[in-house]
Amino acid sequence: MEGVVPDAIDHVPSSKITVVYSGGKEVEFGKELTPTEVKEQPTVSWEANPEKLYTLMMVDPDAPSRSNPIYREINHWLVVNIKGSDISTGQTITEYRGSRAPKNSGLHRYIFLVHEQPGPITVDNPDLASERRNFSSREFAKKYQLSLPSAGNYFQAQWDESVPLIR
């Protein structure tokens, strides 16, 4: 798991999130994808109870690099109040942003996590939409009383000159 446990989560989720990018490129645990392949928002699904609400997070715990993660974590995508696994029913807090690892920073892990919610939540931090650095998936889950991650997946990516770095 490339250190995903304990860098971002405390245990391995019991099921897999299926993540598919355009062109049919599917995320497989820890495989490397290019920033170009993950530029657009993917389709995502997981085993879910259609009557329950879920939160989906995508984070990079390796910013600016795995050896010096001073901005751990970067919030790449955050959607709450998803009914079942139908993301279109959820509220997007942070718009999707694909991988944009800094030059010479090595491989970064991009982790997808799903948490079951105890009920509808109202996110009271307006800065989440603009300030992506120093996000904590653990603290977010604790604050909103989310379950431990029930599903997960991740890929790795590194610098690619064809995709500009955006801060």
From TrEMBL:
It comes from Rhynchophorus ferrugineus. This is Phosphatidylethanolamine-binding protein. CDD domains: PEBP_euk. InterPro entries: PEBP, PEBP-like_sf, PEBP_euk. The lineage of its organism: Eukaryota, Metazoa, Ecdysozoa, Arthropoda, Hexapoda. PANTHER family: ODORANT-BINDING PROTEIN A5-LIKE PROTEIN, PHOSPHATIDYLETHANOLAMINE-BINDING PROTEIN.
